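Example record

Each entry pairs one chain with its bound ligand, pyridoxal-5'-phosphate.
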Amino acid sequence: MLANSAHARDIAYHVHQQTDLASFRETGGTLMARGDGVYVYDEGGKKYLEAMAGLWCASLGFSEKRLAEAAYKQMLQLPYYHTFFAKGHLPSVDLAERLIGMAPAPMSKVLFQCSGSEANDAAIKLVWYYHNAIGKPLKKKIIGRVRGYHGNTVAAVSVSGQPHMLTDFDLPLPMMKHTDNPHYYRFHHDGETEEQFATRMAQNLENLILDEGPDTVAAFFGEPVQGGGGAITPPATYWEKVQAVLRKYDILFLADEVICGFGRTGNMWGSQTYNLQPDMVSCAKALSASYQPISALMINDRIYQAMVAESAKLGTFGHGFTYGGHPVACAVALETLKIYAERDIVGHVKQVSPGFLAGLKALEEHPLVGNARGVGLIAGVELMADKRTREPFAPAMKVGNLVMDKCQEAGLVVRAIGDRIAFTPPLIISADEVQEMLRLFRQGLDAAWSVLR
Ligand code: PLP
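Structure tokens for the complex follow.
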């Protein structure tokens, strides 16, 4: 590595996120230089098929000029304005109206922020604000799930169940509780059907609520498909049973659609795929195809009316971000939604999904692969030491990382979450590109297997 190369300067000056800092200091990383469709190219000119769409987010790939033009046009017209003190601008009005019109359940209003974390963080604050407003100030606890992911702010990461993001950060906050990870393949008992497993998950949730005291439990946060936990699709009947428990104890439900929203699961919303009836919906990522940082939190009218009453009592609604509802981000999001409609992005996902899922499923015959499962264009592939007994590899072997590295050598970007390999390619991926992705993945698996066997 040359002393003044980009890689050396990267090591010298930059703290990378979610990275093993000690090994990064030795090896450096990969700097991406440009994008074209579902491909990205690094500084050395090497081409990669981006099977994660970055961070589950670049839904329209890496070269959609219309989004750059929408940003440029808005920057020329009104590059910044806020939405504090009853002021605002047309792009935020248009986007809010559009989102409410397409919401997966009856929603009343939208709050804009810059990231999925902030949307969920705002939701946590509103859960508390709402219960104070309606005279139930004891309802403060929020239940998330082990391996769930809702963001990295202090509160959102506390609802998340990702041990490595909590340990030594003195988190989670004490009012955040966690119920089971509904990962059927790994955690079902021998002979237990998906439905029986889902019943057990819902029963454990109910037990947690009863242990904590139903009068103290305010909300439940869940992703329709767990992303950061490893692209884990819920077992059959899971959501139906969980929602029945939430209704029984009058617990608000936030559907975290940050990954699933805008076509990922083969419907516009994961909530539609799994028949969810949330009180709040958070979304980000594909909202702007990730070309601009923007997120939205949608709330139902019951929550909104309580907020109006509370703000009347206090004199204002004391919440907001300088860049929340940024006009450039709103303009890019509006153009993104226009492109989804014009190109029937949901129809496209439905069309390419069977080849994507069947191709990954076929890899279950590979000696490293125990299970492959997904929906739409999101899937997780579980690597197993012994698939007959469902015995995982020892974590210290870092087999997931080995496979990820071998894939990268082959020209494929995937993500290892422990020993699960996650796939969420850009939604625009073609059937031929899916086949190329599967071929490169097999190449990566074979290369890892030749190291391990
Ligand atoms: N919620 C889910 C389901 C996510 O996957 C993520 C990020 O991956 C977030 C929230 C946090 O979003 P952000 O990284 O934009 O803060």
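The pocket of pyridoxal-5'-phosphate is lined by residues 55, 115-117, 120, 149-151, 223, 227-228, 256, 258-259, 284 (CB under 6 Å).
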